[in-house]
Amino acid sequence: MNKPEKIVAEDLSEAVTYPPEAFISREYAEAEPDKLWSKVWQQAGRVEELKAVGDYITYNICHDSILIVRDTPETLKAYHNVCTHRGRRLVGNNTGGGPKTVAQDKGAHSARGSQMKFGCNYHAWTFDLAGDAIYIPDKEDWQGALDNVCTSLTPVQVDTWGGWIWINMDLDAGPLREWLEPVASLIDPFEFEKMRYRFRYWGIFDCNWKVALEAFLEPYHVQGTHPQLIKYGDFYSFSKAFGFHGQTGFDSKAHRDAGTAVETSVHRAAGDGDPRTTIAQMQAEYWETIGASTSETLVKTAQRLPLELPEGTPAGEVHQYWMKIAKEADAARGVTWPDLSDAQVAAAGLALSIFPNVNFIPGPTFSLAYRVRPWGTDPDKCIFEAVALDRFGEGEEPETEWTFVEQDLDKWPYVIAQDISNMVEMQRGYKSRGFKGNLPNPWQERKVTNLHRGLAHFMGTGHLKRID
Ligand code: FES
Ligand SMILES: [Fe+2]
After folding, report:
1. What mean pLDDT comes out for the span 147-169?
2. Where is the Rieske domain (predicted)?
3. pLDDT tier, 270 (very low <50, low <70, confident <90, very high otherwise)
4. CA angle, 165 as apex, 59 and 415 as ends, to 5°?
5. 135 lines ligand 1 (CB under 6 A)
6. Ranges assigned E (strand) in 256-406
């Protein structure tokens, strides 16, 4: 059921529509845990969060909670976070044997800690890192009826890729790597596993999780949502479906007409002006208004371009020089770049999404990643996360925490706030009786269309229809 599908002949090139049901229907939202979330691989954290044996985190999705632990220096285990005795959630946001319990609320993203056994706060049943019940008070009262099968924690599949932890509640689901392809192979050269969190923001937004995710799936919205960026060039983009997953990249109408998409560097020198100053200004503005999707080194070295290169230097040379000095500056602070060819950077494009709810913008020493989840099964609420990864010199990695940021436009980086400003209005608009269905751009928004094709596959409703 949940194997990636082959791309059918240039599918999604036709104009299609789909209804707003996936965003607003309560029935649809309540069906998601059974039909979708319990069947797909989901990004559930970073390996760096589980360094020592006994370190654990929880990952909550709808009404399920997953407990992920480091059981040996080399391996991780994941379990349903529920006591097998009478069903209390085993690890709350601050439990693990103590009397204090805090309900999951906006102040608590997830639980984390380190312990060699997990004691349930209710009747003190206790489980080891292998998930086995090692202490059951008055076990003899059951007169031998209890065995490991009924008392052990219920396992969940867990694996890693790119330094990310992934879980799948479906024990029959195929391997993670197979699920992630071909996106994993496109991202591998960027060596995400060598990056660490620089910041991790999360918020609870008043919109469906798909609305929040889709705000970041295509640059088609730049002229409407981020008009201040247009001065840096054309954000025309291509969009591709890779099975359930998707990709966008910078493009031009000429390429579209030729049926190919090749102009796909994150760091393309955009605009008609002097590329030295355009790059310098764009980088400074990105740093100030996004704070990610580039690195401090790239921003700083870009400021040197107008000073160190003569006027009239062609854009390609400016770009090449910039990469060279950025690499040198990083080397001087103990940060090595991956061995990335231009072809690999071009092949990765601007951003890659993993079905159903993750989107990565990869860079040579950084990545900006979004993950969005439903809030319980409320169709009108979601948990939104924006995470910046960076490469750091040895011992320079910062300790980060999940930082809650209110759904307040002044609190988020400016560009992300511009995206957020659409979300609540989208959720409202989808409820209008005057809305006739989505009309996604067949070239630039296929990533969005493909999300809905994948959702329809799992949910059995909301199928794409051709506009004839
Ligand atoms: S519910 Fe956990 S010990 Fe009783
Ligand atoms: Fe945006």
Report:
1. 98
2. 41-167
3. low
4. 75
5. no
6. 351-354, 358-362, 366-375, 378-390, 403-404
Q: What is the pLDDT of residue 257?
A: 60
Nearest CA to ligand 1 atom 1: 86
DSSP 37: I
Confidence bin at 261 (pLDDT 50/70/90): very low
Cβ–ligand 1 distance for 256 under 6 Å, the answer no
Please report which confidence band the pLDDT of residue 259 belongs to, taking 50, 70 and 90 as the band edges: low
Block residue for tokens 């799948």:
168
Q: Which domains does the chain have, with CATH numbers?
A: 42-172 (2.102.10.10)
Per-residue burial over 4-19, b if 16 or more Cβ lie within 10 Å, else e, is beeeeeebbeeebebb
Residue 265, pLDDT > 70, answer no
User: How many Cβ atoms are within 10 Å of 138's Cβ, its own excluded?
Assistant: 7
Q: Give the angle 79-85-89 at the CA atoms, nearest 5°.
A: 50
Q: Is the CB of 122 under 6 A from ligand 1?
A: yes
Query: Best mutation site among 83, 90, 95, 126 for ligand 1, i.e. most ligand atoms within 8 A of its Cβ?
Result: 83
Residue 133, ligand 1, Cβ within 6 A: no
Q: Which residue has the tokens 């601007």?
A: 350
Q: How far is the CA of 304 from the centre of ligand 2 (A)?
A: 28
